[in-house]
TrEMBL record:
This is ethanolamine kinase. GO terms for cellular component: cytoplasm. InterPro entries: Kinase-like_dom_sf. It comes from the Eukaryota. CDD domains: ETNK_euk (cd05157).
């Protein structure tokens, strides 16, 4: 994962276009992400004119550019274009953050965006350029962590996730979870920090122990033969948007999407109930999980889901939630070294790894007794 250079977006666009037969405008322009907005604005306008030829003669004053979010990973801008016929177009321009190619496979992302947007998910892709992409602006509010547990919203997220998991993305259907975790582990275990304090904290980590944890969990979860689906893999509140008037829920941000285990996507989502403070006591209880599973497994007739199917998905989700802790813990270590963002990524590693250790015994014994009981399978 992430082996390609982000600057090969043109090749990526070409490949996506060829394989999907979609016509995505592309531009070779790259935009320096660290520029202040007033200096960046003329370059963004130039980019829009280069991508969308119908605007090439439109006056610059008809474009306005504002910041939507500095995100943890990217810079997102809102572009408003007032066309001469009175029509107004709203778009977003996303600039990839520096070094994000170490944890994000842009080729995989771009291909999936195309197919997911055709299936009705996320923003529409309008164009790609050297270090980013242009998409439709979604008129909706971003959810808060506490929204996700509201029964109506949880049911809607489950229904949408069920549909999302049915989308077929061309290419290999091999689950990527463990490949990604092993790649992260390899990278994360060979880091060196310039700052003494960071290096000291990093050296307290036993990678032998982490490797053992990964192998043990892989071995056990493999025995579950969990269904493999196209997974979002980062379904946190910030990636869920809701238009309250239309009661329409949007999944956004497919940067981490890949074929993976359905229980992983759900367990990862449940871990996000912990919110920005990482309060894992907010992980949904069994009743709340069953509510979600019913709407996920049988969106039209949730009450008809069998106890056996509920229990199986409960065990699957509960074991893969551990994999989500390991994944994001290792991701954080790489970010601690690579990301220019001032965030305590090392601290985040310990938060996720410690939570894995806290949950491990209970979750592993649950899956072991499930596997040992032929009636549950
Ligand atoms: N197409 C869109 N239309 C309107 N708002 C959007 C759109 N895409 C993203 N946003 C808003 O910008 C925020 C950040 O977007 P996104 O999660 O894609 O960026 P990111 O840089 O990957 O952030 P992070 O790394 O924190 O997840 C979202 O939470 C949402 O509020």
């Amino acid at each position: 994962m992430g082996a390609q250079n982000i600057w090969n977006a043109m090749e990526v666009a070409e490949e996506a276009r060829e394989s999907c037969n979609f016509n995505i405008p592309s531009s070779s322009i790259t935009i320096e992400i660290s520029l202040p907005l007033p200096e960046m604005t003329p370059q963004i306008i130039k980019l829009c004119k280069d991508l969308f030829k119908k605007w090439s003669n439109l006056e610059d004053s008809r474009f306005s550019v504002e910041t939507v979010s500095g995100g943890i990973t990217n810079l997102l801008l809102k572009i408003t274009v007032r066309e001469e016929d009175g029509n107004t177009v709203f778009m977003t321009v996303r600039l990839y953050g520096p070094n994000t190619e170490y944890v994000i496979d842009r080729q995989r992302e771009l291909l999936s965006i195309r197919y997911l947007s055709v299936a009705g998910f996320g923003a529409e892709l309008f164009g790609v350029f050297g270090n980013g992409m242009v998409q439709s602006f979604i008129n909706a509010r971003t959810l808060e962590p506490s929204d996700m547990k509201k029964p109506n919203l949880a049911a809607e997220i489950a229904r949408q996730l069920s549909r999302f998991h049915q989308v077929e993305i061309p290419g290999s259907k091999e689950p990527q979870l463990w490949n990604d975790i092993f790649k992260f582990l390899e990278r994360a275990s060979g880091l060196k920090f310039d700052e003494h304090e960071k290096q000291r904290r990093y050296e307290t980590i036993s990678f032998e122990e982490v490797r053992h944890a990964v192998n043990e969990l892989k071995h056990l979860t493999d025995l579950l033969n969990a269904p493999v689906v196209y997974s979002h893999n980062d379904l946190l509140s910030g990636n869920l948007m809701l238009n309250d008037d239309e009661e329409k829920l949007y999944f956004i941000d497919f940067e981490y999407g890949s074929y993976s285990y359905r229980g992983y996507d759900i367990g990862n989502h449940f871990n996000e109930y912990a919110g920005f403070d990482c309060d894992y006591s907010l992980y949904p209880n069994k009743d709340a999980q069953y509510h979600f599973f019913r709407h996920y497994l049988k969106p039209d007739v949730p009450q008809e889901v069998s106890d056996k199917d509920l229990e199986a998905l409960y065990v699957e989700t509960d074991s893969y939630k551990l994999a989500s802790h390991l994944y994001w813990a290792l991701w954080a270590l790489i970010q601690a070294k690579m990301s220019p963002i001032d965030f305590d990524y090392l601290g985040y590693f310990f938060l996720r790894y410690d939570e894995y250790k806290r949950q491990k015994a209970k979750s592993l014994s649950l899956v072991q007794s499930f596997l040992a009981n032929p009636h549950t399978r």
